[in-house]
Amino acid sequence: MTGAGAVLLAAGASGASGPSPLWYATRAGGTVSLVLLTATVALGIAAAGRYAPVRMGRFEVSALHRNLSLLTLAFLGMHIVTAIADSYAHLTWPTAFGPLVASYRPLWVGLGAVALDLLLAVAVTSAVRGRLGRRRWKAVHWLAYVSWPVALFHAAGTGTDTRLGPQLALYAGCLLTVVAAVWWRLVRAGMDAVRVRRWATAALLLVPVSLVAFLAVGPLRPGWAHRAGGTAQAPTPSPTAPAVPHQTPTPQQQHDQEDEHEGDDAE
């Protein structure tokens, strides 16, 4: 192959290196999963406060809560499968379940793994609820509430569209929904459960303040892709692929490529 042909081939490969359909499917699956998890948590909090709409029985509220949980897991499965299938971040099945083992944004992908593990624990124990007993099942069920802020920070730290206005509005909507549900539950509880009120009020203040502070110093500032550990490994070339002169990118070039990948969905 001539030098000019090699240069043209390399340029074509570079031009085709934008986000794949799998990347968009991953982002869509993750976003829908977060919305469904928010609805599930908010409805669970409301149901625990004996909430029952006028036109729905309590058993219908429980069935809706269960179906939302299953739908959340379904979209979460789509999010994980497409993320692993996409070659950009080079994620594997161990990274989906094990925290801090991913090479791409290890902390923030790890938070997603923690949220998944917590939700799976809730799902498995709910399937054998009759054998566990109500007290043990309820103790494990609290992990669903813990998984929500973990998933929210995972989305904010990993999502390459966090800087977009619609995505920030979605995070704010999820946050306000859960905050409103918890506040309503505290008002319904009255002064009887003083200890629970203290812990819930602290969490009610801690999560929004922490998220706003994190966004301000993290994803909303330039260079977040580099600071978050967003350098994806280059794929191994196929033995049958034509030889193309390769140059190892400098750290600045890697940084520019990551920022370009983050900005693709904003165009």
Which helices and strands occur, and which strands form pairs?
Elements: H1 3-15, H2 21-48, H3 58-85, H4 93-97, H5 106-127, H6 129-132, H7 134-158, H8 165-189, H9 194-217, H10 224-227, H11 251-263
Helix pairs in contact: 2-3, 2-7, 2-8, 5-7, 8-9
Written account of the structure:
The protein is mainly alpha-helical and 267 residues long. The protein has one domain. It is 72% helix and 0% strand. The protein has 11 helices and no strands. The protein has helices spanning 3-15, 21-48, 58-85, 93-97, 106-127, 129-132, 134-158, 165-189, 194-217, 224-227, 251-263. The radius of gyration is 22 Å and the shape is globular. The two termini are 36 Å apart. Mean pLDDT is 79; it is low at 1-16, 232-254 and 263-267.
Mean pLDDT: 79
Low-confidence stretches are 1-16, 232-254, 263-267
Main sheet, how many strands, which sense, barrel? none
Backbone CA Rg: 22 Å
How many beta-strand elements?
0
Query: What proportion of the residues form beta strands (DSSP E)?
Result: under 5%
Helical proportion, percent range: over 70%
Quick synopsis:
The protein is mainly α and 267 residues long.
Keywords, please?
267 residues
